[in-house]
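// run 5 | inverse folding | seed 20
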């Protein structure tokens, strides 16, 4: 696969996987600019799937878990937390959107304007950093995160 410049996204099976990396067929897309371009332009296709929308060039994408991943976490409970996703955008963490999924994977929603609200999976580094601030009620199994004086319960799938 070409590493320099831009290439047409057609002709490949493009996928975004749980490891937070983009693939063309079975090969990792090693060019960080192309990976970032894809992350900045992935959006729901309106039928339950995903596509990369580059204006005149659109291509369906296989998303293994989520279309975005949280790559960095900053802040603390007193000042609040901020997350950075693989699309480069930084957001205040909306603790009310936190969900603990299967295998204790942590997710949150990120507002991407015209692309809508997109669920993002926490990668290991930010996950471990945030979990040091999560409280667990042993009796009920409920998990909580407190930031800026507000306590938010972390949802679990039904």
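// decoded
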């Amino acid at each position: 696969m070409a590493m320099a410049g831009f290439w047409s996204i057609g002709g490949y099976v493009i996928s975004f996987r749980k490891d937070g990396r983009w693939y063309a067929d079975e090969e990792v897309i090693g060019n960080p600019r192309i990976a970032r371009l894809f992350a900045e332009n992935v959006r729901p296709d309106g039928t339950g799937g995903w596509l990369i929308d580059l204006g005149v060039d659109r291509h369906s994408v296989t998303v293994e878990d989520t279309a975005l991943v949280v790559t960095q976490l900053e802040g603390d409970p007193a000042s609040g937390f901020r997350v950075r996703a693989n699309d480069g955008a930084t957001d205040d963490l909306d603790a009310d959107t936190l969900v603990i999924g299967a295998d204790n994977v942590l997710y949150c929603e990120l507002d991407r304007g015209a692309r809508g609200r997109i669920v993002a999976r926490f990668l290991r580094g930010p996950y471990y950093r945030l979990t040091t601030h999560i409280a667990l009620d042993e009796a009920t199994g409920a998990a909580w995160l407190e930031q800026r004086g507000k306590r938010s319960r972390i949802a679990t799938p039904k």
